[in-house]
Design goal:
By secondary structure, this protein is of the alpha+beta class. It has two domains: about 140 residues, no CATH class; about 45 residues, no CATH class. The strands form four sheets. Strands 3-4-9-8 form a four-stranded antiparallel beta sheet. A hairpin with a 7-residue loop joins strand 3 and strand 4. Helix 5 packs across helix 7 and helix 6 crosses helix 7. The chain starts with a strand and ends with a helix. The relative contact order is 0.18.
Length: about 190
């Protein structure tokens, strides 16, 4: 295994500390890393730019290729254009592999071996897409049925989280800003 990557907007990191919650485990805190450089780019998340502290990453890795799925028109551009960040790389230091093949975790602090500055995450993502090492499923390429399924899924999320009752909460502002069609549909229910 080669380098593992960790995306962040935070500069000058020399050690990655375990501060993320392990999926499906509220107790363990870990450092997440991936063997897929393109996938790590999507974790360069700017909370101020995107109006949401927690990352909203809609991609997966299959057969070594990262695929990003837009859930609203121009999602990729909205989330990443103009965002600056860093890809930190770490050489294999006996990380635990997760259920996802290209994902790894460490429960310990990890020293960084290299840092690559990314001046515009969106442009870097498009560059990688042009090489064939990343696939982007754009919202406009989806059928009307697929688009409606996404809208209905987000309406369900709005209802489950009761976001209409707290429209100025961070989560409600995020959803109403980016998922306008779902927000309007939820308001009519």
């Amino acid at each position: 295994m080669g380098d593992l990557y960790h995306g962040s907007i935070v500069p000058n990191i020399t050690f990655l500390k375990p501060v993320s919650k392990l999926h499906n485990d509220l107790l363990d805190e870990v450092v997440y890393l991936t063997a897929n450089r393109a996938y790590a780019l999507f974790y360069i998340w700017d909370a101020d730019h995107n109006k949401r502290t927690n990352k909203w990453v809609t991609c997966s890795i299959k057969n070594g290729i990262c695929t990003y799925y837009e859930q609203f028109p121009d999602q990729l551009r909205a989330f990443y254009d103009g965002v600056k960040g860093y890809l930190y790389s770490v050489r294999n230091k006996s990380f635990e592999q997760t259920a996802e093949k290209d994902m790894y975790v460490s429960k310990s602090t990890v020293s960084v071996d290299n840092c690559e500055k990314i001046d515009n995450v969106y442009e870097e993502i498009l560059r990688i897409e042009s090489t064939g090492n990343l696939q982007i499923v754009r919202y406009k390429s989806l059928s009307a049925e697929e688009q409606n399924r996404i809208v209905d899924m987000i309406v369900g999320y709005i209802e489950k989280k009761q976001l209409l009752l707290s429209p100025i909460s961070e989560e409600a502002v995020f959803i109403s800003t980016y998922y306008r069609e779902a927000w309007e549909k939820a308001k009519k229910l």
